[in-house]
Amino acid sequence: MFESRSAVFTGFGLISRRPLCYRRRYRAMKIVDTSITLDELKAMAGDRFGDLVKAVVDVATGVMAIDGELHADEEALLLEQGSRQTDLWGINIYPELADKDRIEFDSIINIRPSQGNRSRGVDDPAIKEKIFQIVARWVKE
Amino acid sequence: MNCQHQSLASGRWRSLSLIEQLANIGSEVERALNWRDKGNPIYSQRALERALELIGLTVEDPRHRARLKEITRLREAILDYFLGENLYQSSSALWRKYFYAFGYAARSRIK
Q1: In terms of pLDDT, which residue wins out, B26 or A21?
Q2: Does A123 touch chain B (CB under 8 A)?
Q3: DSSP code of B87?
Q4: CA angle A93-A137-A84, nearest 5°?
Q5: Which of A10-14, A103-107, B70-74, B99-103 has the lowest mean pLDDT?
Q6: pTM value?
């Protein structure tokens, strides 16, 4: 068999067997340290997951990284910028929803037994509130 | 085909360990469960679709050839639970427990 796994030779030339999405350009993540509108978030959500934008919030510096495919990618970006891991929390922002429903505290990166956080959520209500405040500070209607 | 995880679909998914892959699949399954519990079937369905996309990438990962049964059974059981008649009698508690172990293991190295 002369057929490669990623491409097949046909009478019309070498046709990629990979779906279109393999060939798209990837969008860079964004660090939010200034206002971002809800419409911008809606566009990001629509362009990737449909309903949500993944975000990692630094509760010490008040910045957040958004629009990654994985929370771990956003976490790595903030760590590269000097954030401390203990200050980083993963959330999902649902721009079409309102108030408390807009933020979902759910990420693998939040599982940190050594820090007393054993769930994928954010167990400490004070940290949760801080995250609400940071998101409210940057995300404008 | 409309991939939601574009860079992961392009090959980066294969840079993750199986534990990390299953932990990320678990994130989406957990979201599907949470939105279903909150009465939002549309968001639940979208999270399920993302989970299925990641399971598909995991099945395609050549490193897992010798353990595909776990992954293909996982896919079947998840579909049975969310969209089928739940013949395997799984539950949201079972799924949370199953995936939490992978999430915990994936992050256990973090101090």
Answers
A1: B26
A2: no
A3: T
A4: 75
A5: A10-14
A6: 0.82
The confidence band for B110, taking pLDDT boundaries of 50, 70 and 90, is low
DSSP one-letter code for A139: E
What is this model's ipTM?
Answer: 0.82
Partner-chain contact A48 B4, CB within 8 Å? yes
Kindly report the three-state secondary structure assignment for every residue of A48-81: CCCCCEEEEEECCCCCEEECCCCHHHHHHHHHHC
Nearest CA-CA distance, residue A11 and chain B, Å:
24
* CB atoms closer than 10 angstroms to residue B90: 15
B105 and A CB contact within 8 Å = no
- The verdict on A76 touching B (C-beta cutoff 8 Å) is no
Q: What is the mean pLDDT of chain B?
A: 91
Instruction: Enter the tokens of residue B5.
Output: 């995880």
Which tens digit of pLDDT belongs to each residue from B8-33? 877 789 999 999 999 999 999 999 99
- Inter-chain residue contact A20 with B8, CB threshold 8 Å: no
Quick check: A94 contacting B, CB < 8 Å?
A: yes
Interface check for B34 against chain A (CB to CB < 8 A): the answer is yes
Q: Please give, rounded to a whole number of angstroms, the shortest distance from the CA of A75 to a CA of chain B.
A: 12
CB-defined contacts A:B, below 8 A: 68
How far apart CA A19 and CA A35 sit, in angstroms, is 36
